[in-house]
Design a protein that fits this description.
The complex is a heterodimer of chains A (about 100) and B (about 180).
Chain A (H helix, E strand, L loop, with lengths): L4 H8 L11 H9 L13 H25 L17 E3 L11 E3 L1
Antiparallel strand pairs in A: 1-2
Chain B lengths: L1 H9 L3 H22 L3 H18 L8 H22 L10 H4 L15 H9 L3 H12 L4 H8 L3 H26 L1
Helix pairs in contact in B: 1-2, 2-3, 2-4, 2-6, 3-4, 7-9, 8-9
Classes of the chains: A mainly alpha (about 100), B mainly alpha (about 180).
Chain lengths: ~100, ~180
């Protein structure tokens, strides 16, 4: 015996979803004294965090690099004794020389 | 998961309320629009339904997600019927002579072949009385006796409304299919 077509129709619309009317949550929250915005239920994906970490690392690197290069000093080391600690002294620029010079130990 | 959200709602956790709302609002909207097609009417019905759901949760017994979802749908359907009775003065169209002429031997429509959104739209376009009876019979699985009690009509009126609703919907589905060929 053939199934009634209304049964097909019922199955077809099982779990059917529609966009809710505009302002529905606001109406409910007003009536119940809740917060005006529903909490997001979709979890933030991990790759968002990874992308944010990469961006932060890049920003940090460029900020550090830019900061380092803006201070005009040069590290001078004795090539013959690389293990020794390097002493670096900044010399204030003289009025004759606009570029600061460095004296190594 | 749902059980945990329900438990948190019992403890008046507002975040849990909005989680439950987001999880089910689209499905409940579909149920509501099947009975009450206008957006402003549907908004009122859904708003009242959610307030009832949140208010009733502390005193209800949670058994399973399926029964809980079924209960929420029934709240929406009852609210929609109440709204139609009170605000819209639900009218039940008398027998339409043209519709009586439709032969029962005609081939049956095939709702499987059309998109759920289109099927939903065709149901929304039915007159209020036809739509209410068809929804209760097909989707809520009510008998004509139960429909008669819910809508305050005779059992025979429910049966005839269903017959004509079915005929009209069949015609619309076939028309839609013909337009696609």
């Amino acid at each position: 015996m053939k199934e009634d077509w209304t049964k097909q129709m019922q199955r077809k619309l099982e779990g059917h979803k529609m966009v809710p009317p505009a302002g529905l949550w606001e109406g409910i929250s007003n009536e119940m004294g809740l917060s005006p915005k529903p909490a997001a239920t979709k979890p933030v994906r991990r790759w968002y965090w990874a992308a944010a970490a990469v961006v932060l690392a890049l920003v940090g690197f460029f900020a550090f690099y830019h900061h380092g290069s803006s201070e005009q000093y040069v590290q001078v080391a004795d090539a013959s004794s690389p293990q020794l600690p390097v002493q670096t002294t900044m010399v204030e620029p003289s009025p004759d020389s606009p570029i600061p010079t460095v004296q190594g130990a | 998961m749902v059980r945990e959200v329900v438990e948190r709602i019992r403890r008046k956790d507002q975040r849990a309320m909005s989680q439950l709302y987001q999880q089910y609002v689209e499905e409940l909207s579909s149920v509501c629009y099947r009975y009450v097609p206008a957006e402003s009417d549907a908004k009122e019905v859904l708003q009242n339904s959610f307030v009832k759901i949140f208010t009733a949760i502390p005193s209800m017994e949670y058994r399973s997600e399926e029964t809980f979802k079924g209960w929420m749908k029934r709240v929406v359907v009852n609210e929609a019927l109440h709204y139609l009775r009170e605000k819209k003065e639900l009218q039940f169209a008398e027998q339409d002579v043209d519709e009586l002429k439709i032969a029962d031997e005609e081939p049956e429509p095939e709702p499987e072949l059309i998109a759920p959104d289109e099927l939903h739209r065709l149901i929304r376009e039915l007159p209020d009385g036809y739509r209410a009876v068809l929804n209760l019979y097909v989707f809520e699985g009510c008998s004509h006796r139960e429909i008669a009690q819910q809508l305050g009509i005779k059992e025979s009126t429910s049966a005839s409304q269903f017959y004509f609703a079915k005929q009209r919907l069949a015609r619309q589905i076939k028309k839609l299919m013909k337009g696609k060929q």
